[in-house]
Amino acid sequence: MKNLDQVRLKYQEQYKQKLGKNRIVVGLGTCGIAAGGDKVMQNVKEEVAARGLDVEIDFTSCIGMCYREPMVEIALAGAPSVIYGDIFADKVEKLIESHIVNKTPVYEWAVIQIPGEATPYEGIDIMEKSAYYEKQVRSVTSRLGRTNPESIIDYIATGGYEGIEKALQVERPAIIDEIKKSGLRGRGGGGFPTGTKWQFVYDARGDKKYAVCNADEGDPGAFMDRSVLEGDPHSVLEGMMIAGYAIGADEGYIYCRAEYPLAIRRLNLAIAQAEEHGLLGDNILDSGFSFRIKIKAGAGAFVCGEETALLNSIEGLRGMPRVRPPFPANKGLWQKPTVLNNVETYANVPFIIRYGGDWYADMGTEMSKGSKVFCLTGKVNNTGLMEVPMGITLRDIIFSIGGGIQDGKKFKAVQSGGPSGGCIPAEHLDTSIDYDSLTALGAIMGSGGLVVMDETTCMVDVAKFFLNFTQLESCGKCTPCREGTKRMLEILQRICDGKGEMEDIDTLDRLCRVIKNTALCGLGQTCPNPIATTLRYFRSEYEAHIIDKRCPAGVCSALLVYTILANKCTGCGACVRSCPAGAITGEKKGPHAIDTDKCIKCGACIQKCKFDAIIKA
Amino acid sequence: MVANVTLTIDGIRITVPKGSTVLEAAEKAGIFIPTFCHDPELSKPGACRICVVEIPGMRNLPASCVTEAMEGMVVYSASPAVIEARKTNLELLLANHPEDCLTCNKNGDCRLQEYAYYYGVKYGAFKGEKHRYPLEDDNPFIVRDMNKCILCGKCVRMCEEVQGNNVLNFAFRGFNALVTPAMNSKYSDTEISNCVFCGNCISVCPVGALSEKDMLGKARRWEVKKVTTTCPYCGVGCQFDLNVKDNKVLGVTSTDGDVNGRALCVKGRFGYGFIHHPDRLTTPLIKKDGKFVEATWTEAIKLVAEKLGDIKAKDGPDAIGILSSARVTNEENYLMNKLARAVIGTNNIDHCARL
Fold this sequence. Notes:
The complex is a heterodimer of chains A (617) and B (355). Chain A is built from 24 helices and 18 strands. Chain A is α/β, with parallel strands linked by helices and 617 residues long. Chain A folds into five domains: 5-129, Glutaredoxin (3-Layer(aba) Sandwich); 161-361, NADH-ubiquinone oxidoreductase 51kDa subunit (Rossmann fold, 3-Layer(aba) Sandwich), CATH 3.40.50.11540; 371-454, Ubiquitin-like (UB roll) (Roll), CATH 3.10.20; 459-546, de novo design (two linked rop proteins), CATH 1.20.1440.230; 561-616, Alpha-Beta Plaits, CATH 3.30.70.20. In chain A, helix 10 (233-247) crosses helix 13. In chain B, the strands form six sheets. In chain B, strands 2-1-3 form a three-stranded mixed sheet, with helices on one face. Chain B has a three-stranded antiparallel sheet with strand order 8-9-10. In chain B, strands 4-7 form a two-stranded antiparallel ribbon. The longest helix of chain B has 19 residues, at 297-315.
């Protein structure tokens, strides 16, 4: 068998040379681009050209701090890398002037530094010791924001494809044993032990087998898989190759949602590069193992993240879940034995093979090994991507890494696991993050989306939001999910409109139970979770809506009444001019009043009033 | 020799061949389990979830139609959780179903109605939106009322798996999911729909979503006498039921024929208009003085025999040729062959199917 030694030595040399230069690296993940990263990149190029600087310009993916995008990293040869946040295009000139020309970092814009072997700058947080990264581990995300995702040189130089090289030298069952030893469980949310799943496919009889990657990430507020695909596409390919070798597959599919065009572009590029290097195709590295990977872009259905619907969709059928059993391990893609894992699971595999199952199993808890990537969004200060060891608490994630709640407000709940997950209240903030603890709370680990809610969030409204999502995304195949989610949504809408009755709570309870018990697929079985958990932890809010006709969080507009406090109103008339419904009247310089019949509760007047004279309750 | 498994359903021990479903085992044990989407002749989507049962050790309530019966399995087909689930799912179906059983053509032969009665489920458990699809009745044969559809998908599978025309599939999502021909077209857009109006979809519809157009409003189900007969159109010999009221054929419905199962073609299912047509010949006619005059069969056959005898006597048997029909049975064709070769003495016999 051939090896990559020579290629790796050459690429390591090239990579080292790149790092040895004065460098400017722009974060060009989707979050960076959305924040204006492309324009920043353009300005960097123009500025460097105009000044005739000898600087290596590079780009990378999202390092995780999405809330600070656009981010730019600058390193002078032999000095620490400084990562700057909120570098909009107009800041580029000053940044280059100061850091490159005058060799002085712009301290007030710096977020973190990575000194490497150099002496750190005073006054800039070192990445590993910064509040955002201190409690994180970076294994599956180690290349994110650090290497160029479109460069196979960077990948191979940083240990890439060592996993497949190593795997090809041992017998296939040994690979599966290593994965079993690592304790890796499915990172898509289900948490099924990956090694066991591979074993099933290995044991399944078939002349043809497939390795399929689920990249149809669709939970609201989840972007773990996108970040990995955009930041380290080769690691997913390598993970699939190792899986393919282990189970005896010669073909792989990545089912990636079409809403991730950058991920698809980088995957296609990575596949082409891997083929060029003989790492994909026939007789890989002269090992006798052949493997090819194709990409199938999804058409926008959330349910296609369900494994059997995903397989149907690849086959060109309507994305509707199949009955299990038979499981894909026995009858998967085109009825052939198929291993199906998600992006993060595959991306973990090369690391496990490189460093061994024991290394991986050292992280995490007894039943949930390793690390997990989470996306923190919602009413939290630091929104972004993070990789943490299993077993960390929700409090650590939200308050240490996430920096607490925005505007100093009070934490109310965190939704884990998207529409299939549940809302976890403050009293369970110290729960360890692992598959079993989260399930015990009525939520699920899910794929890693964490949506934080503060005291201004109405939990009935939250449940309604998720139910609206699931009822739109239900495929319509089975009765309980198709009809039940619709009726639950209607009941929640009535409660939010102040038309709820106490029996509605019992009806919701019953629908939650029946839909969970009888729906065909995981989407249907878990879609009641947002209601079930809010009923469990925030029942009083439901009751306030129904009995008192009051929304305690002040969200449900039908239950709000806007009033002007006569003692505070100066009669300035700002509210009158802002009111689109003509509901506010009053004498100039005298107290005004709102006609509640005319008021459409848009809230424009509150925003305009400088005297806090308008309240909603 | 097929291995057997023995399981217990509601306390009844039952042995079935390995590979049987829990539903099949229950049927064998005489235990009632309702079904909408299940059909022994079609593939099993496990979609309607009305046949759920409780099996200790299994997650949630599995659908019995797609759960394999295992050795030693214990099944409860009517536990409180099962009954609650079935009732709730029936209520959910009724919540999006027109409340017009009084005038529905399917009244008395409707599974939704039957199960609602069995479980004491009434309309109105859930208030909310109902579909208001326009009635599709622009073709001469089939009326589709998608407001009544419960999306069991049997018509989809019948068309795909038995008829092979793939006219129907599901479109849209969630509450708006709809069984429809391609591009949300109609049966009558045959260029797009590929529909041949065999009506086999009607034969599997458990509710009133698909109906024979000509039978609408003609009779209640219990007024109709079903007379099983053989289709006269071709030699396949499909069987079907004539639906008769007051000695009049109202229409044709599928029966479980030995030859054809429930499948029929457009002619067999819808081409019965000749039965009561005023132009239909009910006796043989013999031309006398340039005009056809009604005759008896004895007269007519005698006349034909005489004429054939004359020709044979005058010009020999090979002056006679016989052309038989694909619309008669094999046995009748055989007899025609005997008539030609053994009675008349000619080999000049052929069959319209060769033309």
